[in-house]
Amino acid sequence: METKAVRHQGPWVRRCLFDGFAFAYLIGFTILEGLQMDSEALLPHLSQIVWVGLGLSVVGALLSAGLAQRQVRTLGELIYAPLHIRSQHKAVTSFWASFAGIETLLVVAATVVAGWQLTEISFIRLLEADSFFHAMRLFSELAKPDWGILPKAILKIVETIYIAFMATAISVPIAFLLSFFMARNMVGQSKLGYALYTGLRIVFNVMRSVEPILWAIIFSIWVSFGPFAGMLALMIHSLASLSRQFSEIIEGVEDGPIEGIQSTGAGKLQTIWFAVVPQIVLPFISFTIFRWDINVRMATILGFVGGGGIGTMLIEYQGQAQWPQVGTVIVVIAAVVWVMDTFSAHVRDSLK
Amino acid sequence: MDEPILSVRNLEKVYPNGTRALKGISFDVRRGEFLVVIGLSGSGKSTLLRCLNRLHDPTQGEVIFRPQGQSPVEVVGLPAAEIRGLRQKIGMVFQHFNIIQRHSVLNNVLYGALGRTSSLASLLGQFSHEDKQRAQKFLDLVGIGDKAHARASQLSGGQQQRVAIARSLTQSPEVLLADEPVASLDPATCHTVMEYLRKVNQELGLTIVCNLHFLSLVREYATRVIALKNGELVFEGDPKEIDEAWFTKIYGEGARQVHIN
Questions:
Q1: Considering CB atoms only, which of B53, B111, B168 is closest to A274?
Q2: What's this model's pTM, rounded to 2 decimal places?
Q3: What is the rounded CA–CA span in Å between residue A165 and residue A163?
Q4: What structural domains and CATH numbers belong to chain A?
Q5: What is the ipTM of this complex?
C-alpha cells in the first residue's frame, strides 16, 4: 500500500502545480486587464509580478489539492494523472460542463484576449486608405515583371538549386553513417555505445536548433559571402536534421529480420547490411529528396544574408525598391519551388 | 546409444525486468529426433529455443552441444567471437518467417551462407559457386525452385516459411530450431510446412526442436515431446502419452483441445 502511494505522488504533485499555474495565470490576467497596463509599463515591476505570480500559484495548487480531496477532476489531473487513477472517477457530466472543461475554456479565452493585444491586431490599420493604396501600388508594380532580367534570374536560381543539391549530397552519406550510432536499437547496451548515442544526439540537437540563417551569417564571415557560405549553412542543418530522421527510421525497424539474419551466424556488419538496410533504404531516399526540396526553399532565404543564389538578387532589388525586377525573381522562385515540390512528391510516391 | 546432440541442465533465464522465463530446465535432445516443445504462450518456449543458439543469453545453467566429429561446445559460456560458429551449426525458423521481404527468394536462401562468407565478399554480393548451387538445391527440396527469382514478398505465407527453411538448410546445420513455424499460417498450409520439416528430419537426418501450439500437430509429427509451464518442465515423453489428465496439467483447467486437419 505504502509503495503505491509513493509511486503516485509525482503525477499528483504535477497535477496540483499545473492547476496552480493556471490559477495564477487567470487571476494575474484579470488584474492586469483591470489595470490596463502594457508590457513596457510592467517592466520595472517584473520582480514583484513574479513573486505575486508564485504566491498565486501556491494558492492555486492548494486549491487544486483541496479539489482533489473532493474528487473534482481538474485540467491538471486530465493531463498528468495516470489512466488508472483517472478511471476511478466516474464521469457523469460532459467535458464542457465539468470543472476541467470550464478551466480549459477560461485559460483559452484569457490567452486569446492577451494574444490579441500583444500582436496589436487592428482592423483600422489594415483598412487605412493611405497605406492600403501604398500596398496596392507595390502590388501592381510586382505584377508587371521586368522580363529583361529573366536570364540573370534563371542563372541565379540554377545556382540556388545546386547550392541545395550539394548541401544535401554532402550531408547524406555522413548522416547515413552517423544515424546508426544515434539509434538506440543499434548502439547496444555498452557504455561506449551509450556515450556515442548521447553525445551525437546532443551535438546535432544544438546544430539543428540554430537556424540555417544564423549558420549562413557565421559562414559568410568565415568563408566570405557567396554560394559556398550558403551551402555550408544548409549542409550543417541538413546533416543534423537528416541524421535525426534517419536514426528514427532505424529505431522503427522490425526485429524479426534481424533475428533471422543473426540466426544464420552472420556478423554485425552483415546483419546491418542484410536485415536493417533493406528496411530503411526507401524511407531514407524519400527523406533525402524531401530534404533537397526543403533546401531549395531555404537557399532562397539564405541569399538575404549573403548565402549566394537568387536570394541575393532578390534582396538587392528590394533594397533599391525595383519592384518589377523583384516581381520577376518571385515568379522564378515560385515556378522552381512548385516544380521541385511536385517532383519530390512524385518520387516519394513512387517509393512507397 | 548415441550421446545426445544437446544436453540442457538447470537452464535459467531471468530478463532484465525481473521476469523468470526459465526456472532451471533439464532435458536432452537426441540425435535425429523430432522433439516438440509445447506449453501456453509465455511458458518460456521461445526463450528456451533462443537460449540454445544464443539469440538470448541464458542467466545460468549448462547447454552442451555435440556436433558430429567435433569436440562438444559449452553454449552458455561461449565467448561472443564463437557464437557465430555455433549459430551456423544450429539453424532456426521463426513464426513470422523473418526473411527479407524486398530481396529475391534465392538471395534470401543464400543468406544462410553468411556465416562462412567474409563480410566484404557478402556485402559485394559475392557468394561462392557451391553456395549458390546449394541454395538452389534446397529451394527445389522445399518445392519452390521455380520461384527463385521472385521477390520474397510476392510469396504466400507458407511459401515464405519454406524459403526460411531453405535458408537454414543452406547453413548445413545439424540442428534446426523451429519457433512456432506454423502459428501464422492457415490450417491447410500448416501441414505442408510441417511435412517439409519432417522431410528434412527424415531425409537429411537433421535433429529438430520445434515449438508448437496444436496438440493434433504434435501427435502427428513429434517423435518425442516436452512440455513447459511457467518456465518449468512438466512433461517429457511420447506424444501418445498426453491424455486428458496431462492436457489439463499442461494447459490448465478449462482449456479445450482445438483440432486442425
A1: B111
A2: 0.77
A3: 5
A4: 2-121 (no CATH), 141-350 (1.10.3720.10)
A5: 0.92
